[in-house]
Design brief:
3-stranded antiparallel sheet; 3 helices
Length: about 110
Amino acid sequence: MLSPAKERYLGTKPRNDAPDKFVPRPWGASYYEMVMVLRSKENSIYFASVNEALRKQNSATSLLDPEGNLVDHLPLGKGGLLIQDLDLSKATGFYAGRYRPELYKEA
């Protein structure tokens, strides 16, 4: 049996009738999935994250658009192939284009 802290970390909770069975959390409940949203928004890019189909993984295989919206995902612990058509004109890289390396010269 997992501690409550470990359950929160894994985003799963054991079922009372079968402690070794885990119920996956909904998409977006994971810290890593929220970071995906932020990375896609702050860089104005499509963000794809690929993961193994494990019962206790930290994030689902996911695709987010440049506005941070979930385009599609494979549920936690489910194997499969995620295929989507993308509108590449939405991926402007606007914020990434504001990067000015001359301001970050080594001392």
